[in-house]
Amino acid sequence: IMGDSIFNCCYVPPHPPGEEEPRRSKRTEIMASHSSNISSDKRFLIFFDFDETIVDETSDDMVVQAAPGQHLPEWLKDTYQPGRYNEYMQRVLAYLAEQGVTESDIRSIIEKIPATPGMLTLFQFLRTRPPKDFEVVLVSDANTFFIESWLRRTGARQLFHRIFANPATFNKDGRLVMKPFHSHDCQRCPDNMCKQVVVRDYVARRTQERGRPYQRVFYVGDGANDFCPALSLGPRDVAFPRRDFPMHRLITETHEAMPGEFKAVTVPWVSGEEVVQRLRKLVAE
Length: 285
Prior knowledge:
Layout: H1 26-33, E1 44-48, H2 59-62, H3 74-77, H4 85-98, H5 103-111, H6 119-128, E2 134-143, H7 144-154, E3 162-166, E4 168-170, E5 176-178, H8 195-210, E6 216-221, H9 224-230, E7 238-241, H10 246-257, E8 265-266, H11 272-284
Parallel strand pairs: 1-2, 1-6, 2-3, 6-7, 7-8
Antiparallel strand pairs: 4-5
């Protein structure tokens, strides 16, 4: 994981001992503090995004199918503000509840979202590796209810040691209530989540707990908000951007505009099977 750079909008310098860290996300801290039950002998750490990386759609878009007529009213769509998507989705979920949409309605829609090509093959590869090979973490701007529902339906929940996402639970009125994951200072990312902060916090915490770094860190993603965490990867690490999606384009543009700024090896993929091929070579080294 690299040090300062002009792109490290979210780099937080170490704070003096005994003082509180003013910017560290409390939620990241809580979730990371549970990581001590993961064995500390894993060779590799692999991060996954969810929407359009694990599943071949955006789960927030799919849930709209539960609305009357399978679309949202214009007045509701008009409330969206750039960078404040999380707040917009909170209003969408409230609207769905008002229209009588139930937990099982939402779950059944989410469970039907198809996996991206080759993704279940990639999961099977990770699942059948020796236990010391991979620590698997999910980092998503979707919500925990959508993610957990889909992973449980496909039998993939046990593969993930940690899930970092916007927390969502049903309240007593049957409404899915979603909260922002954390707050941060990154200018590039939406208000409720900077994945680079999450990745940095997690890697730093785990490296400390383990007493040694991972041999390599991998990041599998597709979106512009996956570019930010991939910037923190080092030259031995590998970024797996979905080919021709925003993450891939941003990496390509950065290589052209600022050679050396993006440090990780880049392996674009169309199918998860291409990720398997590269991982197979790397674990054999």
